[in-house]
Amino acid sequence: MSESRPFHLAVELSGAGRHPAAWRLPDADAAGLLTAAHWAELVRTAERAGAVFAAFADSVQPPSAATDVVQARLDATGLAALLGPLTARIGLVPVTPVTYAEPFHLAKALATIDIVSGGRVGWQVDVAAPAGSGPGDVQAAQFHGRSAAGAAAQWREAHDVIEVVRRLWDSWEDDAIVLDAATDRYIDRSRVHDVAFTGETFSVAVASITPRSPQGQPIVVARGDSPYALAVAVTGADVIRVAARDVQGAADLVARVRAAVAGSGRPAGSVHVLLDVETLLGADEAAARGRLAELDSLAARAFDPSGLHVVAGVDRAADALADLVELTGVDGIVLQPLAHAGDLALLADEVTPRLRAQGRLVDRPAPGGPDAPRTLRDAFGLDRPISRYTAAR
Amino acid sequence: MPKQIHLAAHFPGVNHHTVWTDPSHQPDTQTAFASFEHLARTAERGKLDFLFLAEGLRLREQRGQLVDHDVVGRPDTYTVLAALAGVTSRLGLAGTINATFNEPYELARQFATLDHLSAGRAAWNVVTSSDAFHGANFRRGGYLDHADRYERAREVVEAARALWDAWAADAVVADAATGVYARDRSIGLVRTDGRLVDIEARPTLPRPPQGHPVIIQAGDSDAGRELAAQVADAVFSRHGSLEEGRAFYADVKGRLARYGRSPEDLKILPGASFVLGDTPAEAEERIREIQRQQVRPAVARAFVEQLWNRDLSDYDVDGPLPEIDPLVEAPSITQGRAATFKDPFAVAATWRALAAEKGLSIRELVIEVIGRQSFVGTPEHVADEIDRYVQSDASDGFILVPHLTPHGLDEFVDRVVPLLQERGSFRTEYTGTTLREHLGLPAAGHFGRTLDGVGAADEALPVA
Ligand SMILES: Cc1cc2nc3c(=O)[nH]c(=O)nc-3n(C[C@H](O)[C@H](O)[C@H](O)COP(=O)(O)O)c2cc1C
């Protein structure tokens, strides 16, 4: 492979891993999957592995009737908040379905995770299952007086939600709190702004209750693999995630995403495109195959990859990931480990050290020096924007 | 053994109480995680029952403008508590979250998440402010009238409890050998068909460690008290004086029998402030200085404007009270805080009489009215008083509201807590791990239905 571009590695975590039998492996801590200690250990390992962020999968989908898979799922927003003070460098990205959520609550919850993590929150926007599908109606029924809308309408609304959340994040200018005892003013009220948003499905009148957070604008992550989602991601996201069945499909999709970004007038470097890759690692090739065979033997059905995947020993895994980046033109990879426990440790101990030694991982230091806090914007090389209301002065 | 005192730490914030003019107060003091962490660690060091966060969903306004003379702004309740769960191990984590502008499904899931992540330390203070002013920030919009907001709160709490109960207590097997994660048909479908809460949901979390996170109620109206008697585990009350406290305590505890509950099932916890000094004189001197900082000229004017319901910017706060009458017909000039004056003419008459008798200016009058602190004196005196109030059933303890963020609780924990411990009326170590245990509350399930085996088996569960 020619001179390679350094890339970002991120991880996405859910349950005990993507494989339905992941929770049955001896090191999976099946009884501890809902504890703070379990998640702290996991995400610290991902942090040690140099992951730029950990995304926490979530949805409003209820548990199924299956008895042999992990049915319990913590609220991703609370989980990300827990991990803020327990980690130091890694980004924390809860996935939030916005369809039945209050945008005002989302804005302040995410700003608050940004505060408790010292500027490391990202927000992955998702929607609920659409109307006309069984899950769509089941999900909607969980919310009083709501019914499922079609995908197009849901994504139009998601666009509005991003817009209003971004306005709320800016609604307090950075220097709004003045503490001026001489004039008895805690804030300068001219620096706190009504967002005055009226959309098709909701409106938000005034300012956030939460002052501006460390990143000002936390990183917004969205998927780009459906046309509706892509349209929203292109205008509203800083990081766009894609998944594909094969390398060619991924390369095509990435090209489409980049063209759409360019067409929207946003500068190319301001949007990062990351590719989902399911992974199962082993000390060597045979060990990885052995782990997959073990997992498959424990599950009702053999593992059915949902797209690109790397099942490999640590040596080849490092090259395989670098190759995927080269062949598809992405800026990085979101690893979706089939089994968290073993995979994250091997990633941290064996895979990323190799990638680092080859200079293949982006690992930007904090602008303030190696020991200074690094925000998720810093990690992606994105400047901290001033509030739109400051800019409009 | 004397009746045991329950103590909580209020994170001080959006009110006139916080002395933000103190040199220690920085622009980010009210939001920095270090502030929350400091208060939580201090409370935990003092073996307090829980830390308490308030909530207000819209910045307060007066005369159509943002209130700018008190603390403004705060982080989101739920996520701060989740972050605190990771840096504390025994302290209860109580958050105020509105029942009107949140979906029961989300509330139940958030508090279940917090209860799991904190291993049984979550509490939810259910509040109901539901006016159009707050509604302007939410999809729901509009407002509910007073009767309906309590009806909704009750339906929401019941729905949340149903969601917490929906997984059978022994649903999670997590047996790697047999491959059973959740027992067959052990995850119930919750259906509510309330007038205001009509949902059908199957939650994503097993029963929380406490069974039901602790429910706190803070409303003071008859409907609020009734809701407390019906569903709450604790009441955050504003009746902190000995006589008012005893009356409130007797009233609310007296309502419990109607719901088959006993007096110990509901803890009455008034908010309380404190000022300590090495001598009584020193404490008096400190309180005078604190009051001057709390009731600065803008605060005094705003407070009197709320009663008069008029723009009083032309009045000198060092001069006498207005001679004109309060305006009662006009819409309130204050938005975002609970209206506290039922009969403005009567209150104005009382204030004028008080001011005339003592020769008080506007500011001095306001200091008399809102500058009062609950417990003032030497640590010995404050410990005596707190214990006396609790032993004489004016409360089961207090939610302490320091006047400084975040160090205001330090001296209470250092100087008063040990004295209460010596008296045997406050714990020297946590004896339980959950907040329910700290509060001496009955195990949950008391209200909850045991759903194990009910309902879920009758229908096909959707398969993802
Ligand atoms: C698995 C399951 C769990 C339920 N949990 C609750 C609950 O916790 N609280 C509640 O008020 N109703 C609960 N329900 C009751 C339903 O909301 C509904 O009122 C009930 O099923 C009516 O049918 P019945 O009269 O046969 O009980 C539950 C129902 C099922 C099937």
TrEMBL record, chain A:
It comes from the Bacteria. Keywords: Flavoprotein, FMN, Monooxygenase, Oxidoreductase. Transmembrane segments: none annotated. Coiled coil: none annotated. Residues 34-295 form the Luciferase-like domain. Pfam families: Bac_luciferase (PF00296). Gene3D superfamilies: Luciferase-like domain (3.20.20.30). InterPro entries: Diverse_substr_monoxygenases, Luciferase-like_dom, Luciferase-like_sf, NTA_MOA. PANTHER family: ALKANESULFONATE MONOOXYGENASE-RELATED, C2H2 FINGER DOMAIN TRANSCRIPTION FACTOR (EUROFUNG)-RELATED. Belongs to the NtaA/SnaA/DszA monooxygenase family. This is LLM class flavin-dependent oxidoreductase. The lineage of its organism: Bacteria, Bacillati, Actinomycetota, Actinomycetes, Micrococcales.
TrEMBL record, chain B:
One of its GO terms (molecular function) is monooxygenase activity. Its EC number is 1.14.-.-. It is an enzyme of class 1 (oxidoreductase). Residues 24-392 form the Luciferase-like domain. Coiled coil: none annotated. Pfam families: Bac_luciferase (PF00296). SUPFAM superfamilies: Bacterial luciferase-like. Keywords: Flavoprotein, FMN, Monooxygenase, Oxidoreductase. Belongs to the NtaA/SnaA/DszA monooxygenase family. PANTHER family: ALKANESULFONATE MONOOXYGENASE-RELATED, C2H2 FINGER DOMAIN TRANSCRIPTION FACTOR (EUROFUNG)-RELATED. This is NtaA/DmoA family FMN-dependent monooxygenase. It comes from Cellulomonas chengniuliangii.
